[in-house]
UniProtKB/TrEMBL annotation:
One of its GO terms (molecular function) is acyltransferase activity, transferring groups other than amino-acyl groups. It holds the Pfam family Acetyltransf_1. This is GCN5-related N-acetyltransferase. Keywords: Acyltransferase, Transferase. It comes from uncultured Pleomorphomonas sp.
């Protein structure tokens, strides 16, 4: 089943829906793979705080007035990528990833990156199917609300994008 979806830049009135989706989807994908103290810190408030500096690069997926996914593009990276559970298997994630890749290509990015926490097998399979190459695992920094330094084993996916010039 596919969903008729519009992709558009984040608007301030999207904030509550993005924070809720991010919280729920993050816990679904990462709750069992990251340390318990990190999971406990991932509250609605922490996602709201984290969204602030990332709003400018946020692309949302909307269908029938509902926000069903979002991607945050920063530099040469798709920094965050989440789809609502109800939209899985509909093609929305594939279309949203393509839209984020296009956004990067339009900015002149040729070598794109997306990170995937070790243990998030569903996301790992999805990125591989979408043509991203797993370049290996490294101890990557993870965001913490108090700014302390923590790392987690993370797959670094890379993809060469076509020029849109």
């Amino acid at each position: 089943m596919s969903i008729a979806t519009a992709f558009r830049p984040f608007r301030p009135d999207d904030r509550a829906a993005v924070v809720r989706l991010w919280h729920d989807a993050w816990h679904d994908g990462h709750g069992a793979v990251l340390p318990a103290h990190v999971v406990a810190e991932r509250t609605m408030e922490s996602f709201d705080l984290r969204l602030g500096p990332l709003e400018a690069g946020c692309l949302v997926a909307e269908a029938d007035g509902r926000l069903l996914g979002f991607a945050i593009v920063e530099g040469n990276e798709i920094d965050q990528f989440y789809v609502a559970a109800e939209a899985r298997g509909t093609g929305l994630a594939t279309a949203m990833l393509a839209a984020a890749e296009t956004q990067l290509a339009r900015r002149g990015v040729r070598d794109a990156v997306i990170q995937c926490s070790a243990g998030n097998d569903r996301a790992h399979r999805f990125y591989a199917r979408a043509g991203w190459r797993d370049s290996g695992v490294r101890q990557a920094p993870i965001w913490t609300p108090d700014g302390r330094h923590e790392t987690h084993p993370t797959h670094i996916f890379v993809k060469q994008l076509s020029s849109l010039d």
